[in-house]
Amino acid sequence: MKFQQRALLIALFGVSCVAGTAGALAANSAVSSGSTSAPAPAPAAAPVLPALTAQQIVEKNLAARGGSAAWRSVQSVVYSGSLDAGRVRPDNGIHPSTTERLIEKPGKSAKPGQAPEQHMTGNDEGTPVSLPYTLYMKRPGKQRVEVKFKDETLIQTYDGKTGWKLQPYLHRGVLPFSAEEMKKAQQFQDIDGPLFDYAAKGTKVNLDGTDLVNGNPAYRLKLTLKSGDVRHIWIDATSFLDVQIDGWRRLNGHDVAQYTALSDYRTVDGVKLPFLMDTRTAGLPDHEKIIVEKATLNPKIDDTLFGKPSL
């Protein structure tokens, strides 16, 4: 049996950007790749909504999430829960999965020596795996992710300047972040999310239109980051909470658009956090869920926790 690995840790780091810290539990969520932006999903019809400026929408979003004072008081947070982490494959990964076949050219296998006419049945796709995780965040920009798999713990840390990863199943020891991982870590690692004090972060926000998200009307905001990368956040027209964020995922050498839906908002010590993040990848059938079971605000966390992991 082979565990079909996914970018568990980077996914969690990417998602921390959404709706204040809980969002990254996204983007598995959304990975920004280069200066391109993920295309918005084609809506059936753009809903007509009250005319608001981008700034007005941002202000309403902040108020809906608990307000400026409440978020400024949050200095650290710990999330724990479970995340979808691929499938256990009965063929030990010999044959291409549905994901690999859809990402590669039709009829062409991603596995060397695999004949194009070989196919897998539904049962061959494997059994979904859910793993427990813990995400630690602390100002300014510090994060640590731990994902438990059998008797091993995957760890990824970022202290605001340097990032490290420990993936025991690869037997490579502790490795520094790649250039792409560093870029991602430097974006969207704020506890309070990308819309909070966005101008001070060098981000430009524009109203980019309206869409239906899960059947509900929403404002689509375009965020141009300091790096030049572009992301979109959808704000529900009634609750003014973040309901979706886009991004990219690197899969089999291809940049694939992803969309993370945020729901099950709950109030924790005066701020609203999404307890469910559901990520879908364009062109693929499966969704990946990250569930928050517990969120603790302002716990004491020693800075050494965000340094290089110990073997």
Question: Can you give a write-up of this model?
Answer:
The protein is mostly beta strands and about 300 residues long. The chain has one domain: Clam (outer membrane lipoprotein receptor (LolB), chain A), CATH 2.50.20.10. It is built from 5 helices and 14 strands. It has helices at about 10-15, 55-65, 70, 100-105, 180-185; strands at about 1-5, 75-90, 125-140, 140-150, 150-160, 165, 175, 205-215, 215-225, 230-235, 240-250, 255-270, 270-280, 285-295. Strands 1, 2, 3, 4, 5, 6, 7, 8, 9, 10, 11, 12, 13 and 14 form a 14-stranded antiparallel sheet that branches.
The gist of it:
This protein is mostly beta strands. Helices cover 12% and strands 40% of the residues. The chain has a single domain, classed as Lipoprotein localisation LolA/LolB/LppX (outer membrane lipoprotein receptor (LolB), chain A, Clam).
